[in-house]
Hints:
The protein is an alpha/beta fold. The chain folds into 2 domains: 4-12 and 258-381, Alpha-Beta Complex (Aspartate Aminotransferase, domain 1); 16-256, 3-Layer(aba) Sandwich (Aspartate Aminotransferase, domain 2). 40% of the residues lie in helices and 14% in strands. The protein contains 14 helices and 12 strands. The chain has helices spanning 16-22, 38-57, 71-87, 102-110, 131-137, 160-169, 189-192, 230-233, 241-256, 258-276, 307-316, 336-340, 345-349, 362-381; strands at residues 4-5, 65-68, 93-97, 117-121, 142-146, 173-177, 196-200, 211-215, 282-285, 295-300, 319-320, 351-355. The longest helix has 20 residues, at 38-57. It starts with a strand and ends with a helix.
Amino acid sequence: MRPVYLDYSATTPLDDRVFEAMVPYFRENFGNASSIHAFGRKARAALEESRETIARCINAPYEALVFTSGGTESDNYAVRGAGMAQAKKGRNHIIVSAVEHHAVLDTALDLRTKGFEVNCARVDETGTVDLDHLRSLANDRTALISVMHVNNEVGTIEPVREAADIAHAVGALFHTDAVQSFGKIPVNVEDLGADLLTLSAHKIYGPKGIGALYIKKGTIVEPLVTGGGQEGNRRAGTESVALAVGFAQAARIAVEFAERDSIHIRKLRHELREKLAGHRGIVFNGHPEKSIPHILSVSFDRTGIDGEALIIGMDLRGVAVTSGSACTSGTLEPSHVLLAMGRPEATARATIRFSLGRLTTSEEIETAAKALEEVVRAMKKR
């Protein structure tokens, strides 16, 4: 049986068109973009064209985009870099939502060792940030508020613009992690009110190892990586032109076909939800309406089902799924996102995240639903 991949929120396969665009920059056009000779100038032109393509996709000026090694570095750069810069102005307070990716959450918490106060804004049972609580936490010492655009575990679309307005009302910067939204729903830095915005290539059928941070003009962010003048003195290190070219190609394709892909994926998600709805004790996580169609998170409530065994059982039947974030799926800890949403620990552990992509088929949905039925039946017989 052909394996079924339903973990597109963890990573995506490289699009053939992206690979083809990258190949020349691994071979004949291999120059260092910082060199002033012909090889370097050709590499620089490709790098800046790629930057402009991606920036255009989020309605940003090209010079506002800094290439990084991926979403994690971009999140670290935004939170730590902006926080340290703002601390020089007497602002040493950071607010993050309780359901942020650990790249944001752990970085913010680590800043406590640097004298920062860090608060987590509550979320409701759908995973939506509580704006009243967020507002109550903000004050004139707040340096940064970070609320992700789309939650990577349950798919909820957060009220980012409203959160940005709260930040700006107290003179704070606003950051949003758009890793799971970019290429799926519109991401416009002006509409979102973002001062800082995180992107990643490998979630949109691009290469691993490259991401970007949008930094609004006039926003001061202390660099994490020093030792060179690359990226406008904001991120040292020789740029990977090939990866940048691949990122740009992936972004262009994703944005151009986002609506078509979403229609296809929404239909498949509905099919999957209908097939799973009959399971006893099943709970669907995330906002029922304000969510992206690419993610379907389900938990088993009060049924004694072991979450790790669920994932292994599905894998043994050729279906690749996970329990939540790929960055923490190797741990045995229950999802902090589901706990923040009020799920009991046992329920949070007994969770599967199905994430669908443009290559997913109805046949794969059928296979996944049958596999889950077999796994649950086998576990209940033990």
